Amino acid sequence: MTEIKNIDDVLTKIEEMHQSLRLSDEIFPLISDLFLFVKGIIPLMLEVNSFMKDSSSKIPTASQNINSVSEATELAAHDVMDRLDTIAEQLDTLRERIKGEGASEESVQMVDDISAEAGEIIFAFQFQDITTQQLEHVNRILEAIYEKFIAFFQSSLKLKEKSILGKDVVRALEQEVEEKNTHESDKFHKKTEDKMHHGGISQDAIDKFFK
Amino acid sequence: MENKKILFVEDSPTMRRIIGNSLKKLGIKEATEAENGVDALEKIQKEDFDLILTDWNMPEMNGQELVEHVRKMDKYKSIPILMITTRGMEDDVMTAIKSGVNGYMVKPFTPELLKKKMIEIFAV
What we know:
The complex is a heterodimer of chains A (211) and B (124). Chain A is elongated and about 115 Å long. The longest helix of chain A is centred in the first third of the chain and has 74 residues, at 27-100. Chain A has helices at 7-21, 27-100, 105-124, 126-161, 164-191, 203-209. Chain A has 211 residues and is mostly helical. In chain A, α1 packs antiparallel against α2 (27-100). Chain B has helices at 13-25, 37-46, 63-71, 90-99, 111-123; strands at 5-9, 30-34, 51-54, 81-85, 103-106. Chain B has five helices and five strands. Chain B has one domain (5-115): Response regulator (Rossmann fold, 3-Layer(aba) Sandwich). Chains A and B meet through α2, α3 and α4 of A and α1 of B.
């Protein structure tokens, strides 16, 4: 049995089959066409597969980043709300003091208005919950896509195991496509690289570069 | 309204703070918070409440499931329940009504709207 290294070897094999089995001239063009179609479609599918492998490897990090955004906005929102609460308390104290000192109604009203504004700002922080829920939705979609990718990889592995010929053909094609795609994959990784700081280099370490 | 005991159910600490502040400003003296439906069910079994304010999307037990559970409890068959959620589709409102809510508000909401809804609910 000749070794199958690429799709052309498959076509040669079909030609050999044609000769040895004396396939009718009607059936042979059909089989040849079918394999030419396979020759065109499999590399495309493998390209998609390779792209999906690259993309899916990014999903857990993307998902983690989304969670970090939610946590960071929550912390920031509470920080601002803490300060607003302090301002509101100070305004209450100020209100009582100026009222006791006989300030005009207009001045007291002004303090009340500022206090009401502070309350409105706190209320506006509902955006934090709303955006968090939207991000959670995006996360759920990413998780669903990730699960689909995993299922796809598993089924493609099963497909390869089904026949010796299939295994050899797919392996040969994968090799061809992988070689072609290495450059594309590098470009993809560069484009989608996570450039955020995740406990990487410290400020001290950065400063050392400038000394 | 000031003497009513209110339970508000929210998984978001930010929203719990906002709702807690609003209730305080409305003069509510007794407001208890719960983080999700399960937490809320535990609290309503220990204490009596006059109104439940609940979010919909929450982990463990969501607001809609909570409403369904509460409506099955003899003690709370007719307690007013106001849902405050980001879900703003007509289907969502219908589902919430079928589950047994008495009022529905879409986030973001204003303190005035919360006050209005609470007045309406307690007036019935």
